[in-house]
Amino acid sequence: MLVASSAPRKKKLLELDIVRAAAILAVVLIHATADPTVELPTDSGSWMAYVAVNKLSNFAVPVFLLLSGLVLFYRYDGDWSGRQAAKFYARRVKQIVIPYLIWSLFYYLYNQWVVSPANVRLDVADFASMLLWAETSYHLYFMIIIIQFYILFPILMSLCQRFPGFRLALFPVGLALQAACYAYSQWVEPIPHSPSLCVTYFGVFALGGFIGLHYERFDEWLRRSFRWVLPVAVLLGCGFMLLYQLELSQRIFFDNVWYELLFTAYAAFAALALIRLGQLLLERQKRLAGWLLSLGAVSFGVYLVHPAILTYWKTRVIWESNRMLYYHTDIVGSFVATLAVPWLLVWLYGRSRRLFRRAGKPKLPAGDGA
Fold first, then answer.
1. Residue 229 domain flag
2. What is the rounded average pLDDT for all residues in the chain?
3. Which long-range contacts (CB under 8 A, 24 or more apart) does 78-86 make?
4. Do 80 and 187 sit in the same domain of this protein?
5. Contact 136, 104 (CB under 8 A)
6. Based on the number of CB atoms within 10 Å of its own CB, is 161 exposed (0-12), middle (13-18) or buried (19 or more)?
């Protein structure tokens, strides 16, 4: 016999799907503009524009992680138990671990096929050795980080439930762990695979968790503070971008700590600004909000599929011209295709699943309905 949860059902935060849409757009922009940042002359206006777009989009991964923390703590606050923890792990194996294994295998074979269609092979030992650190494709490291956070989340949620002080200290503790990891790696010895370790992003995940635990109060604060949150986010993003432009074009170097501070602060304020912008779009621009909600809803699928489309474009779509117009057309075309094709494929997949699910439901005889 199933017992319904006594916790009140919380409203869906639609603005977060708009933030997901912005973050997946940024992910595709990062990958589509990566080549021009290293191929074009550093004294050209085109190079500066591509670097600006690429670096200003760097908020994507930390924002996705912040959203993960926000949604998890928002969903389970007040509705957490040992039974919920068991269900949580079972659900995440189905939703994250299994897709990670499937897509790792796909890219293991696909990347071989792109290089040499006649020489595709499956070396089980080689494939297995690449799984731990997501080495079958450059974008799957995000899945490794998410899996680590999912392993830790029940512990963090239990601490928040048992110790009220920990609820308030969640963000400072997470930020301290992230800072300690960075300090050790920077000034003691490098930590292997640090870009794929959750502790590298613990501060932004914990910030998301803190917001999720106090979302109503956060919402009130954000509405009052948006007038300065947005400009701060823009200034931090421009500062982060300018560090790279000065280093690469003028050979002016800064200590790595400045990159880390600006990167983390920019991602945090970008997330806050995007949440409020999402709310404003839902209130004032419903048509645009509808498109972004659609993209946000399929963002995980777009994330999984888009490198396959981008790789195919770069290896099969050849622009034989030295004119910059064709070069820019190629980059813009790769971005459009890399976003639109996965969006369409994932949308069609979701629609077909819903149709099959409806077709599989038995029809109730007349009079048996509730």
1. no
2. 90
3. 78/7, 78/8, 79/5, 79/7, 80/157, 80/158, 80/161, 85/154, 85/157, 85/158
4. yes
5. yes
6. middle
**Among all chains, which residue has been given the structure tokens 């292997």?**
192
pLDDT band for position 305 (cuts 50, 70, 90): very high
The model carries a pTM of 0.92
Q: Please tell me whether residues 114 and 209 are part of one structural domain.
A: yes
Answer whether residue 169 shows pLDDT above 60.
Answer: yes
Same domain, 289 and 189: no
Query: Within a 10 A sphere around the Cβ of 89, how many other Cβ atoms?
Result: 15
369 within a domain of the structure (yes/no): no
Q: Provide the domain count of the chain.
A: 2
Domain that holds residue 52: 11-57+265-358
- Would 290 be classed as within a structural domain? yes
31 is written with which tokens? Answer: 């990958």
Q: Cα torsion at 225, 230, 233, 237 (round to 10°)?
A: -170
Question: Do 166 and 172 contact (CB within 8 A), yes or no?
Answer: no
Q: Which two tokens stand for residue 66?
A: 């912040």
Phi, psi of 160 (to 5 degrees): -65, -35
* Residue 68 shares a structural domain with residue 205: yes
DSSP state string for 45-79: HHHHHHHHHHHHTTTHHHHHHHHHHHHHHHHHTT-
230 within a domain of the structure (yes/no): no
Question: Is residue 52 located within the same domain as residue 78?
Answer: no
